[in-house]
Amino acid sequence: MAEREMEVINDRDGFGVGEDVIGDRPRRYQRRRPRQMVPDYLDWKDIEYLGQFVPERGKIMPRRISGISAKDQRRISTAIKRARSMAMLPFVAD
Amino acid sequence: MANRTYEVMYIINPETDAEKIEKLNEAVGKLIEKEGGEIVRMDDIGIRNLAYPIEKKESGHYVLFEINGTGQEIAELERRMRVNDMVMRYMTVRVDEDRKKAAAIKAKRDARNEKRATRATTVKVEEAEAVDAQ
CA-CA distance, B75 to B90, in Å (whole number)? Predict the structure, then answer.
């Protein structure tokens, strides 16, 4: 499962993806993106903005990749979930 | 009762006649006003594609209301929408608290920026004065 998530991430360009040998097996790592600005009022209907945090598969992008703060991540994930229940964003896309 | 702001969005079956949709929207508006709510904004977004099928339909007619009220009209509205066959999906979101929070954050940031700006100018003025003194 974790492996698959990594692959999805690797599909995207613009991330610093690489391998590091820690201990006996190589570990993949991604560099954090520069911190992004999240608007003060996050509109759950703003699909274009939220789409930034939804990779092709339809999952919510983890914070370690988007590089946003924990507070913003919570706001974004509720907004995405609201948009999902109104069929504006997919639960799963394949 | 405290005044609250809600966003009510619903998706209507795309196969319903335009007349019926119009009538439904009117009925919703009347209901809100009857229950003591105030319509801030009414937006008939129209047909758009769904991200996943609902009731085996790939598209839906979206309508958005923004309401000022007490919450009573929301309860009544949701009850009506639940039994209405035309409405495929509905959702109500309370937005006033988030907006207030956003405004507070913005005010704080503006105040800080202003403080910074004034400090920068005063420093400059002091420097200029120092140069003048020389």
Answer: 12
Going by C-alpha positions, the residue among B8, B2, B12, B5 that lies closest to residue B89 is B12
Task: Return the CATH architecture of domain B4-94.
Answer: 2-Layer Sandwich (3.30)
ipTM tops 0.90: no
Q: In this complex, do A41 and B60 lie within 8 Å of one another by their Cβ atoms? A: no
The predicted-structure confidence for A36-69, as pLDDT tens digits, reads as follows 788 889 999 999 999 999 998 999 999 888 888 8
Where do the structural domains in chain B lie, given as residue ranges?
4-94, 96-134
**What is the 3-state secondary structure of chain A?**
CHHHHHHHHHHCCCCCEEEEEECCEEEEEECCCCCCCCCCCCCCCCHHHHHHHCCCCCCCCCHHHHCCCHHHHHHHHHHHHHHHHCCCCCCCCC
For residue B9, the chain A residues in CB contact (below 8 A) are: 45, 86
As a whole number of angstroms, the distance between CA A48 and CA B21 comes to 27
Interchain contact B107–A (C-beta under 8 A): no
Nearest neighbour of A40 by CB, restricted to B60, B89, B106: B106
Tell whether A86 is within 8 A of chain B (Cβ): yes
What's the pTM value of the predicted model, to 2 decimals? Answer: 0.75
